[in-house]
Fold this protein.
Amino acid sequence: MTDPLLEASGLTKTYALPGGGRHTAAEDIAFTVPPGGALGIVGESGSGKTTVARMLVGLVRPDEGEIRVEGSPRPSRPPRGKPARLARARQIQMVFQDPYISLDPRLTAEQCVATALRLHGRDESTAAGLLDRVGLGTSEARARPRELSGGQRQRLAIARSLAVDPKVLVLDEAVAALDVSIQAQILQLLEEIRRDTAVALIFVSHDLAVVQHVTDEVLVMRRGKAVEHGPTHRVLTAPANPYTRLLLTSVPRKGWDPATATRGRESLPNSN
């Protein structure tokens, strides 16, 4: 059996509330992902899925729990020294819903990727090849972020992440703002990258249709807790938890009745 590439155990994060008390954004979250595997983390806004993603990549420090990559603990604090920081960055990279804010507006697409390659001691001349791999040609390579469409910027963000040669790629609602046809292209691209490089994907999304097509397993979160976890096909076709069933009945489709979703929500414990 293949050893896990990524292991998360007991991840917990709480925040102080302005009026006193604590809000638990994530509590005792655990999962494993093998090389080349894909895990979907799903739930409504406020479920804690983005908090988990940010803990994985190091943007948020967990209060408790541990993250391991290839069996080694991942430091919760950025390590001192450039070599150690770069090594940590090569473990896990993140692609955001809106990559524009993470792209240097002064650099062309090719310069953006070349900078990442240079920083990590890799051959800058491979930048054009990486852009081509994600479907960006010569004209896009010369363009700056503001001159690219949303889908093209997302492809650029993926290419820049791949320049680091990461073990794990975390995608936080990475296709949510894109047109359906562009979504399909990005999802196909991610599937090809996973197949060719064995990078593991963590796909954070509220869109169950997207998760169904790109993941092997799914973790369902509600109010900071994992309420269901298992193979994607099983969880999304025969869910065991009422909340998962609610998410599925809330997806508009032919013959869909929103009242059914409303009644399902009212029947959940602590549904307010």
